[in-house]
Amino acid sequence: MAMRLTSHFCKFLLCSACVTFAFGEGTDDPRPRAQAKYLSIAPVVDGIVEGDPAWQDLTALSDFTQTIPNNGTPATLETKVYVGYTDDSLHIAFIAYEDDLNDMKPSSAGWESDGVVVVIDPYQSELTGVAFSTNQTGVEWDASLFNGNTDWNWSTVWDAEAKVNDDNWSVEMVIPFTSLQYPRQEVQSWGINFSRYVRSRNENSTWAAIPRQFSVWRLGLAGTIENIRPPPSKRNVRFNPYLIASQGEGRDADLVERSDFGFDVLYSLTPTLNFTATFNTDFAQVESDQLQINTGRFSLFFPETRPFFLENSALFTIGVPRETLVFHSRRIGIARDGTRLPMDGGIKLAGHVGRQNEVGFMYLRADDASFEGYEDFAVARYSRTLTNRSKFGILATNRDSDSYQSQTFAGDLQWGFGEYGEIRSFIATSHANDGIERDDEYTYAVYGSYNSPRWRSSASYHEVGAGFNPAIGFVQRRNSRKMHVASRRTVTLDGKWGLREWQPQSNYTAYWDFDGYKESGYLQLDSNFVWKNGANVRTSINVAEEGVRYPFFIAGEEVLVGEYESPELNIGVNSPFDRRWGIGGAFGVGGFYQGDRRSLVLWSNYTFSEHLNMSVGYDFSEVDFPNLNEPFNYSLMRFGFRSAFTPKVVLSGRLQYNDADDILSANVRFAWLRSASTGFYLVYSEVDDGRYAESSHRRSIVLKYSHMFDMNF
Fold first, then answer.
1. What residues are paired with 281 via a beta bridge?
2. Which of the chain's termini has less CB crowding within 10 Å, N or C?
3. Is 496 within a domain?
4. Which residues fall within 8 angstroms of residue 522, CB to CB, at 6 or more apart?
5. Which of 257, 184, 239 is closest to 707 using CA atoms?
6. pLDDT in tens, 63-78
7. CB atoms within 10 A of CB 15
8. 586 located within any domain
């Protein structure tokens, strides 16, 4: 075993070195700098910036630069930003000027709204940070950032108020220092950037200019705000008790019906290190999973949505997204069929120790799937940040059941080269004393990317041993070797025929087992035309290869043993983003295992007003297998709505039907929020699952109230 691991580790280092040479070029670009000013008078947080004496002596940050549609040119509308701080909070104000106020597109749904964003990287790590966003209605969105990715399920305490004026709209944000993690120095400089999106023009602009291949989430391209003097010693305690009453029927009714209480508590051991404890943990307010149809032989991936696990979740992430994760928190308190298992509680410690070191530890206890015992889960993590988007770290997990224990150990490395190049890699091994003999209990991967204004290229190699079984992780394929290469060219068209750019791209992914048998291959040749208004047309020619050694079923129909090569043509269209009504879809035709498939995907969303929007989606496939007398079909239908009576009083719902597995899912939530996702919730959920002959339905109604006691000392 040791010899095999040594061999794989050598491969791991060799691949890392190769990718280093391939992607190690880049350029330097000076970033803007500004001064934060202490506010002797705290602003009145009402959205009115002009005329408030707190802002009068501050110098506005302006001169925003377009990211899209005309990258590198000045923004067409003026935006002013003011940054100051008081003894306990960071204050940020925007004034967003408009040519015509009727052109504004406010909405309670962030993905279809005008808006402003601030991203903050207090450690100037270029990897981790937070984002705060709002628009003309004052609705609040917040996110945690890691390596250019956003997690909008993260939530913290802050406030925003907006006001529409004669020729502009303005907004004030107040972010308590206790909601941020930052170094210990008396005088600090933070990475910061500001962004504005004008939906009617499909224009995005930023204070610190961003090349077209990146977005404002790229923290290494942020500017710097200097002379911040946050409180050095203030401690924060947030105590969130909850009361819950619920009724249920059908499957798992005994898990739903209860009148109970519990709490979460967060204590800032230092301004950079938080301790969180949870007792009788409950996530009744979390939305239901989005349904998926499995058209292959391997496990589907469902993302985490529970708040306790989302905070600092990037710290605990090692692996290949959606394929192989050393730690996946959905293995805690959720059975494989989606049933929520009772959780007694747990603790979490996460944050920075010094400027470069990040640590994390979690311990939780939950019932096992048999409801006859419980399981203990523990995760420990250390990561050290280096310069230029680089870091390395280690992670260990342990799962302790009544009958066995299992552990996983992993290490990861990320290295940034210049502005455009990056490599990422990890290696992990697992062990369990469950009496099952396993060989090749390892996995590793190396990924390299190069993203310039014209070229976006990547290459990766990923290997998963047949016996790799992470204690609290996710593995889609075992006994596999994966190779992936991709490249995309961006051709700017500067408005010719109304087009912004043309993006031809190609990628190839293939999987082999350890005997050299090719299980899957996928070649995609794609051409994407993007108009200046945001509309796009995509055409692609795909060739799928599948080696099926054992038969399996799709929508109840058998896929036969064999080796298949299936070409497919796909055409997709999406309407402009500046319309009240958006619509799009795709049509595909081509081979599918031993037969042929025709597929249709449609989506639409309609914004009735800034307070109400609805969306629908429809995925349909018709499959003709030669071993069947007639074709069969399967579909997935979705309907959703969101009605925001105020920024903090929201009614939302989702209805889904998967006819391949005969599953109907409904989830309706009424939320009267206070701060950081606490408040009053009324949730109705129903799942009718045709895969079960008896008690196929699950129905529940939950009333939950949680309150945050925010105490500083």
1. 343
2. C
3. no
4. 507, 508, 509, 510, 542, 543, 544, 545
5. 239
6. 999 998 888 999 999 9
7. 21
8. no
